[in-house]
Amino acid sequence: MDRASAIKLVAITLLLLAAAAMIVISIRTRMSHSDGMVYFYDLSQQKLFPAPRSSVPPIRGIDNDELDGVRAIVISENGNPADRKHRRIAYLEKYTPQLKAQFEAIQKNGATASTSIRREDVPASTLVRRLTDRDWYPMDSAEGEKIVAEWNIPGPDGNYPVVCVP
Length: 166
Known about the structure:
By secondary structure, this protein is of the alpha+beta class. It is built from 4 helices and 7 strands; from the N terminus they run αββββααββαβ. The protein has one domain. The longest helix has 34 residues, at 3-36. The radius of gyration is 22 Å and the shape is extended.
């Protein structure tokens, strides 16, 4: 291999390594950002607020000690999470008091035989509703399944919505 070819090969290798490093940094930044906070919605104040992903809804809202903070699944309808103009709440989510107590016991003490949660029991104890609804529905009910699925359709531009984090 002549000197010019060797220089080209080194330059291409360095460019590929730099591109790979940028991709890894970008993915790590996005993952660490999204792992920390999610949107919650204060039912009495009717406002979104960020809270740790590990929070078990309902949680204390933004204005008092009332447990009126529920998880809000916020989406960008055009598939671009940076475009705040196209964000909306797809649905709200909370747990039954029994499931909330189990999740909090596991967070506090770790999983034990008495606190373990069967995966198949979670949807029936996860309640969902649209922002405009008054009633809550178990996620595994016909209406609950409709609520959690109806937002995930492509828009006029063909792009699917994406879930957004604060």
